[in-house]
Specification:
Layout (H helix, E strand, L loop, with lengths): L3 H18 L3 H10 L3 H18 L2 H24 L3 H20 L1 H11 L5
Length: 121
């Protein structure tokens, strides 16, 4: 069960981010409808793909979940602003899943700075 959530989230964000990076028509139309520039769509896609990869790297998984949850705050806000209620609930569920991964790995996040330091010679 410990790995199911990160893997599921990774699939979601790889597909979503990949669609943005590929410039799929439905993503382009959505970002146009919301008034966001194309560069923002590509940035969002890159962050989603990077986060998905981070979810698959055990020492980074919880931090990636936290970052993706923060990213999803923007998605939820956009869907609220445009009264896209079904998508707001989907984005909200993904936000909560990312936050749950971060919470479950909060000790991993706290330990990360120590793991990144090189041992003294």
């Amino acid at each position: 069960m410990h790995r199911i959530l990160p893997y599921g989230l990774a699939v979601i964000f790889l597909l979503s981010g990949g669609a943005k990076l590929a410039g799929l028509d439905f993503e382009v139309r959505a970002f146009e409808r919301w008034g966001y520039p194309p560069a923002f769509m590509y940035l969002t896609g890159a962050l989603e793909v990077a986060g998905a990869i981070g979810l698959l790297i055990p020492p980074l998984s919880a931090l990636a979940g936290a970052c993706l949850a923060l990213l999803m705050i923007g998605a939820v806000g956009t869907h609220i602003a445009f009264a896209e209620w079904p998508m707001m609930f989907v984005a909200g569920a993904i936000l909560l899943a990312g936050a749950a991964r971060a919470w479950a790995g909060r000790r991993e996040i706290k330990a990360l700075p120590g793991r990144l330091r090189r041992p003294a010679d």
